[in-house]
Amino acid sequence: MPLNERDRIEILMMIGVGDRMRTQQEVCRLFHEMHPDREPVSQSTVSRIERKYRELGHVRDAPRQGRPKINENVQQDVILSALENPHCTVRQVSRDLNIGKSSVSNIFKKVKYHPYRVRLIHELAEDDFDRRTEFCEYMMDHNNQNNGFIANILFSDEATFFLNGHVNRQNTRYWSQENPHWMQEYHTQHPQKTKSALARKAH
């Protein structure tokens, strides 16, 4: 069992002062006699306690190293940031409150806040179903007339980059304890956007 501050002070009193000082061996024996139910102390322990008192003037434990604990006020500020702006990022909260990003993440985890990611869903208009059917019939008809029709079509992979802050599903989050089922409408036909296409030929 480790010695507490009271035990160390008791050992100092056993050591004594002036011509009444005891040897380390005598202190160990006396401590064991007074506390037979405890683990005996070693001479090195007595020596270390005496040296610490002579150098520092006390036998208290040194302050623990590491980052200070986050107090409740800071935790409340982090939660309030998410409530006021559910789309905030850990980096943003960390910068605004001047605390570490890992601390922000730990607080969110502690209160069971999860960053829900947005999922893009294409809305179908009323006449979209007929258009799809018509397109399939058109493609099947031309392919029946020309067996090489499909092979001559050049398909492309298209990526759209918005310049006006539209949703980015890689960066957009919604902090909440439960799935908010949040929805927001976006229009793909917008003048402030640019497209990048990688062409590939069908096989």
Radius of gyration: 36 Å
Runs in which pLDDT lies below 50 for 5 or more consecutive residues are 193-203
Strand content: 5-15%
**Form type:** rod-shaped
The strands making up the biggest β-sheet line up spatially as: 1-3
GO molecular function: nucleic acid binding
Main location: nucleus
GO cellular component, one term: nucleus
Organism: Aromia moschata
Break the fold down into its secondary structure elements and pairings.
Elements: H1 5-15, H2 24-34, H3 43-56, H4 72-84, H5 90-97, H6 101-110, E1 114-117, H7 128-145, E2 154-162, E3 173-176, E4 193-201
Antiparallel strand pairs: 1-3, 2-4
Helix pairs in contact: 1-3, 2-3, 5-6
Overview of this protein structure:
This protein has 203 residues and is an alpha+beta fold. The chain is 42% helix and 13% strand. The protein has 7 helices and 4 strands; from the N terminus they run H-H-H-H-H-H-E-H-E-E-E. The strands form 2 sheets. It has a two-stranded antiparallel ribbon with strand order 1-3. A two-stranded antiparallel sheet has the order 2-4. Helix 1 (5-15) packs across helix 3 (43-56). The longest helix is centred in the last third of the chain and has 18 residues, at 128-145. It starts with a helix and ends with a strand.
